[in-house]
From TrEMBL:
It is a multi-pass membrane protein. Belongs to the drug/metabolite transporter (DMT) superfamily. Small multidrug resistance (SMR) (TC 2.A.7.1) family. Its main location: membrane. This is Quaternary ammonium transporter. The keyword Amino-acid biosynthesis does not apply. It is found in: Cell membrane. Coiled coil: none annotated. It comes from Paenibacillus jilunlii. One of its GO terms (cellular component) is plasma membrane. InterPro entries: EmrE-like, Small_drug/metabolite_transptr, Small_multidrug_res. PANTHER family: MULTIDRUG TRANSPORTER EMRE, SMR FAMILY PROTON-DEPENDENT DRUG EFFLUX TRANSPORTER SUGE. It comes from the Bacteria. GO terms for molecular function: amino-acid betaine transmembrane transporter activity; antiporter activity; choline transmembrane transporter activity. The chain crosses the membrane at residues 26-46, 58-78, 84-103.
């Protein structure tokens, strides 16, 4: 459920970012309102997902996928140009998100074991 809420947060962030462009510097009312509501929803659902997903993993996924999909939206919908450096950067973001998901928190010792190890280390000092 937490990853579904994170996906809702990402979708809201994408809507907000697209409407931010459409608001033309907050000079158009409807896109401006949608921008604010979408970003509020995005942060709300991100905060709920953080109850179950570690912050570094959730934020890496949220910002990484948000960035990658925003680039795709900017090219497809807004007809913006993309260059080789952008493609390399996006590829590195994707690699980073994959590495965090495969090797990040939750893939080693359990939280109880980590807490126990910290207490043991502190007691030895």
């Amino acid at each position: 459920m937490a990853y579904f809420l994170l996906a809702v947060s990402i979708a809201s962030e994408l809507l907000g970012t697209s409407m931010l462009k459409a608001s033309q510097g907050f000079t158009r009312l409807i896109p401006s309102i949608v921008t604010v509501v979408a970003f509020v929803c995005s942060f709300y659902f991100l905060s709920i997902s953080l109850k179950s997903i570690p912050l570094n993993t959730a934020y890496a996924i949220w910002s990484g996928l948000g960035t990658v999909i925003t680039v795709i939206v900017s090219v497809v919908i807004w007809k913006e140009k993309i260059n080789t450096a952008s493609i390399v950067g996006i590829t590195l973001i994707i690699i980073g998100v994959v590495v965090l998901n495969l090797l990040g928190p939750g893939h080693g010792a359990s939280e109880d074991q980590q807490s126990s190890n910290l207490h043991s280390a502190a007691a030895r000092k």
